[in-house]
Amino acid sequence: MAKVLVVTSGKGGVGKTTSTAAMGAALAQAGQKVVVIDFDVGLRNLDLVMGAERRVVFDLINVVQGVAKLPQALIRDKRLENLCLLPASQTKDKEALTEDGVGRIIEELRGSFDWVLCDSPAGIERGAMLAMRFCDEAVIVTNPEVSSVRDSDRIIGMLDSKTVRAEKGERVEKHVLVARYDPARAARGEMITIDDILEILATPLLGIIPESQDVLRASNVGSPVTINSPASVAARAYADATRRLLGEKVPMMVPHERKGLINLLLGRRAA
Amino acid sequence: MDSSVEPTRQLLRLRGRSYVAFVFAPAVPIVGWLEEVDATLARSPNFFVGKPIVLDLSAVDLSQSAIAHLIKSIEQRNIRVLGLEGVDLAHVDASMPPLLSGGRPCMLQPAEPKPPKRETKETSLLLDSPVRSGQSVIFTEGDVTVLGSVGSGAEIVAGGSIHVYGALRGRAMAGVNGNSTARIYCQKIEAELIAIDGYYQTAEELDASLRSKPAQARLDGKIMRVTPLN
């Protein structure tokens, strides 16, 4: 049975799209059939991060409106053949999304994939609501800062009340993914600790992704970090998070600062 | 110029209307029948309030004085007699209710005495899960208990007291219906705002030494007192 997973956060810029791409690729690398859907109609980015921007013909809105059929709009990844992308439209806005249309598409995708990953836009408006509407599971991406944590709390409340599952009295399984975790700042006590985040959100932890140049580099070349530099700390953290999604027990690694010899000699901290 | 005003004449309008009335058909012996009426009244004393009845005397043969006595007995029981039926015009005098004719039977729903409904109005609200940012819980009937935390940006409004078995990071407003004895309890006070019966305190005014500790808030006259628990 396919699982529909929404990647959401409330706040913008916390790493939803990057995480969707990285986890989608990692799930595909684990042999799962995966489709990632960009719900950020009007401000699409997932196509860029996945490196598929030059192959977009039809998009989510075309399928919602019945202009194109679903298989015509799906873009197969060039690196992983069991990974597909359903891009958002850049010219329309989120009002073009309808609940019926989105429901129909997700139902159709459930039939041919193991995982349907919905990349939610920021905010709590129509786009974000429809991205989470039909989900079975949710990954809440949070940065270790107060504004992000409070927005995540708000989103968790909505996952528990505004989704189809919640309305049927069923549970949406929720996971917190802490992204952009900066070990150096954590060591200086400049960020909310992981324990505080989990205490506030009262939701299990899926993984901790360190702030990393590898992630930025991967996004810029249009390749999820788990494909682009699988040996990097960030990619390994995403891979571990993905294995936890698949039900494996993987010990949680809190990224810590690696002090280089020269920095150590100069008494400086690596940023 | 003749300026006399012609008095405007009011038109008499006649309208027909039909009503449903209970019909009493006394049977002999009248004393026994009256006891039956008393028994009914004992079960539901207000049954005939506002429900005048028609007295159908076709089953009994009574003299004029007997009819007058019967009407008097009924009216002593606070039942008003609307009219008489099935009696000879000769037996009716002007002091008695008018003689009616042309009544038709109609089905009346047997008014079963309803079992008095037990008032099971909830006086407290229990929330099993954390209250998330942006959620608003309003319960003006009584106490609210939260088994979990109240997130920053969430609010709880209660007619009674508020109990939070977790951290209170949002707003808590207790005693909103003017209940100044309501209190707020929490395991960890980090509230943005607490209020009891309209008197409030913001996070800034909260004593720093209390922060993140178990605390209770109550109203002492017009002053809110926040004190540590334990």
CATH class of chain A: Alpha Beta
Radius of gyration of chain B: 35 Å
Alpha carbon gap, first and last residue of chain A: 44 Å
Instruction: Give the H and E element order of chain A.
Output: EHEHHHEEHEHEHHEHHEHHHH
Unreliable spans of chain A: 267-271
Widest sheet, order of strands of chain B: 4-6-8-10-13-14
Strand count, sense and barrel status of the largest sheet of chain A are:
8 strands, mixed
CATH-level-2 architecture of the largest domain in chain B: 3 Solenoid
Percent of residues in helices of chain B comes to 10-25%
Secondary-structure class of chain B: alpha/beta
Report the structural category of chain A.
alpha/beta
Number of domains of chain A: 1
Gist of the model:
With 271 residues, chain A is an alpha/beta fold. Chain A has helices at 16-29, 46-49, 60-64, 70-73, 99-112, 126-133, 146-159, 164-167, 183-187, 194-201, 213-220, 225-228, 233-245, 261-266, and strands spanning 3-8, 34-38, 75-76, 83-86, 115-119, 137-142, 173-181, 205-210. Chain A has one domain (3-266): Rossmann fold (3-Layer(aba) Sandwich).
Would you kindly provide a written description of the structure presented here, covering whatever features stand out?
The complex is a heterodimer of chains A (271) and B (230). With 271 residues, chain A is of the alpha/beta class. Chain A is 41% helix and 16% strand. Chain A has a single domain (3-266), classed as Rossmann fold, CATH 3.40.50.300. Chain A has 14 helices and eight strands. Chain B is an alpha/beta fold. Chain B has two domains: 22-91, ACT domain (Alpha-Beta Plaits), CATH 3.30.70; 124-228, Pectate Lyase C-like, CATH 2.160.20.70. Chain B is built from two helices and 14 strands; from the N terminus they run E-H-E-H-E-E-E-E-E-E-E-E-E-E-E-E. Chain B has helices spanning 30-43, 64-76, and strands at residues 22-24, 53-56, 81-85, 124-127, 136-139, 143-146, 155-158, 162-168, 171-174, 184-189, 193-196, 199-202, 215-220, 223-228. In chain B, strand 2, helix 2 (64-76) and strand 3 (81-85) form a beta-alpha-beta unit. The longest helix of chain B is centred in the N-terminal third of the chain and has 14 residues, at 30-43. At the A-B interface, helix 7 of A face loops of B.
